[in-house]
Amino acid sequence: MSGLVQQPIKTPSLFVSALLSTTSPTPTASTLKPSAMPTSLTLPLPAVGAAVAASPVTASRVATPYRSRPLRLVATPAATASSSPSTSTSAVSSAPPSARHSRKHLAGRDGAPSKPTKPRVFFLDVNPLCFRGSQRSLSAFARWLALFFAHVSLRDPVVAVLDGEGGNEYRRRLLPSYKAHRARGVGTGADSRVVDVLRECNVPVVRVHGYEADDVVATLTEQVLQKGYRVVIASPDKDFKQLISDDVQLVMPIPEIGRWSFYTLRHYVAQYKCDPTADLSLRCFMGDEADGVPGIQHLVPGFGRKTAVKLLQKHGSLENLLNTAAIRTVGKGYAQDALTKHADYLRKNYEVLSLKRDVNVQLDDSWLSTRNTYNDTSVLSDFILQFNNEGRS
């Protein structure tokens, strides 16, 4: 029987499949016909930003949105498909080295080797994953973590970051409404259990007193980029969009479909029609209702996203725009009035919404090592079992 040779990878644990209630059938030798297998096949990678779904037997990096050209995969003799994860993995690994493909040797339509991509480092924003809606939920955290390990990060380095004690205080002094409606932390007992699980899965945990996780991630991202790595930030928090670039992207949990989905520079430009460098300035005008930061439209009806984008495209940044508006007219009357009368208001929003890059935290080179995934199955299984025994959701 012939098949497409896949890069050897660690298959997700059976408990992850059970946890996600995956029902799609697993192909076996009896369901695959040799006559139906082509001798060569051109397959496009999934669209950039494709959601990462659970698979009952194999996990791969096909959801990684760094290559948009189709790949030419040539069928070679491979082991017979098996419903056993261990059998499938060992069989594929035994294929001749010349028959295996890696990122470094994948070819495009022209047959030329593709440019090797930089290694990735993941930052896991822990706090938002510990909630289901507005309610604390460690079972939600366990589920997202299982999906993340099995289908997103695989063996790439992962650094988990939590909010430090009093991390919101600086911004609340500037703007009392900032996250005033949010629950503070995930609870002392729950917090300890989360940290224990992460460390047992060989994930370093970082927390800096007086700073939010967002600021710590932004600071560490700068340090990782300087070492020649790409960064993927795993978080639903849109504050991180101001960091997006060619080498920084997000992967976001989507509760509606129960999957992680990549969000890249291309997605940002398609959604907002501007460059991420203007994201922070744009949000100063629009505000952030989820974080309790009011936008200027509450003060100046009619001053919306379209007006803000147009002005920022011309002047580049909020500060440039405000400085220019102070000496000459930059737009229609209502826009000019808004910029001159509410300049301090907009500058305060900027200070509240901007992520700090100067937190006193230093990247440890050991955090960039390939993650040992040996404990994942047993640790997460035990963690899930605790909730079943305690009757928690």
Automatic annotation (TrEMBL):
Keyword Electron transport among UniProt keywords: no
Recorded GO CC terms: chloroplast
Keywords of this entry: Hydrolase, Nuclease
Highest taxon listed in the record's lineage: Eukaryota
A GO term for molecular function: DNA binding
Compositional bias segments (type: Low complexity): 77-99
Disordered, as annotated region: 77-117
GO BP term, pick one: DNA replication, Okazaki fragment processing
InterPro entries per the UniProt record, alphabetical: 5-3_exonucl_a-hlix_arch_N (IPR020046), 5-3_exonuclease (IPR002421), 5-3_exonuclease_C_sf (IPR036279), DNA_polI_H3TH (IPR020045), FEN (IPR038969), PIN-like_dom_sf (IPR029060)
Segments forming domain 5'-3' exonuclease: 117-373
RNA-binding listed as a keyword: no
Gene3D superfamilies: 5' to 3' exonuclease, C-terminal subdomain, 5'-nuclease
Annotated protein name in UniProt: 5'-3' exonuclease domain-containing protein
Organism, scientific name: Panicum hallii var. hallii
Phylogenetic placement of the source organism: Eukaryota, Viridiplantae, Streptophyta, Embryophyta, Tracheophyta
